[in-house]
Design goal:
It contains eight helices and seven strands, in the order H-H-H-E-E-H-H-E-E-H-H-E-E-E-H. With about 250 residues, the chain is an alpha+beta fold. The longest helix is centred in the N-terminal third of the chain and has 21 residues. The strands form two sheets. A five-stranded antiparallel sheet has the order 4-3-7-6-5. Strands 1-2 form a two-stranded antiparallel ribbon.
Length: about 250
């Protein structure tokens, strides 16, 4: 077999092996990788050693393989957020076309929710640019998603009351978060601003952890108790595909 073809075959095998490790929800044992790929143990061992040297995979304390430090280094770069926005853009556009409302993509950062992308509503009424705007997360659907799935720590001290409908009682907020986990999406009606409604759902990564959240928002004349279930279902269905692109293979309610 020509040397060039042998080299291409090795790259293909290493890529398939790396994909298995990265896309798995838990560390993979050597035996399971050999069985799933159908390669010889010696070949699999050589490929894993090469991936380890490149910091693309690493072993845990039990000797199982998980994504390497290079992925963490990349994820910490500022450009990683730009890459997430670009990857999510088709999904955000599709949600915008279906709902015709404002669509936002947000990520957790410390104790805050950072909005990193927005698709404006087709309506003039209720179209506000929320990117970079600092708001109390417990009053937002996006924040509730990140709280509910453990991506954001609940704030200490007294919860800010932005409107008469803001959830300032911790027991009430905890009950809301239980509901978010049960149905897979969160809602905020008149809690951040009177007259503003929003529904949000999570975006998951390889290990099932919630990396981001996407919301649909607009005036409560259009987003209210009568339409939130449909919007929640739209978000869950659309974000399942985006989560799959990020390596998530589970079937949670997203």
């Amino acid at each position: 077999m020509p040397t060039q073809q042998l080299g291409s075959q090795a790259v293909d095998r290493a890529s398939a092996l790396l994909a298995l490790v990265v896309e798995s929800g838990a560390p993979r044992t050597f035996t399971s990788l050999v069985a799933e790929l159908g390669l010889a143990k010696s070949t699999t061992s050589r490929l894993l050693q090469a991936l380890e040297r490149s910091r693309l995979v690493q072993r845990d304390q039990s000797g199982a393989f998980r994504p390497g430090a290079l992925f963490s280094i990349y994820a910490a770069r500022p450009s990683a957020l730009h890459d997430l926005v670009e990857l999510a853009r088709p999904t955000l556009d599709r949600i915008s076309e279906i709902t015709e409302e404002t669509v936002n993509l947000s990520v957790p950062r410390g104790r805050e929710v950072v909005q990193i992308a927005q698709i404006d509503s087709r309506y003039l009424l209720g179209s506000t640019n929320w990117v970079g705007v600092d708001v109390p997360a417990h009053c937002t659907a996006l924040g509730k998603v990140l709280y509910a799935f453990g991506s954001l720590a609940l704030p200490p001290g007294t919860l800010e009351r932005r409107t008469p409908h803001s959830p300032v009682d911790r027991a009430t907020l905890e009950h809301m978060l239980v509901e978010v986990r049960r149905r897979g999406w969160a809602v905020s009606l008149d809690e951040l601003e009177v007259g503003l409604g929003a529904v949000a759902a999570p975006v998951r990564g390889v290990d099932g952890a919630v990396l981001a959240a996407v919301s649909v928002s607009g005036p409560t004349t259009r987003i209210n108790d009568h339409g939130i279930t449909r919007l929640g279902d739209v978000l869950v269905n659309e974000l399942r595909g985006l989560s799959a692109q990020l390596g998530h293979q589970g079937r949670e309610a997203i």
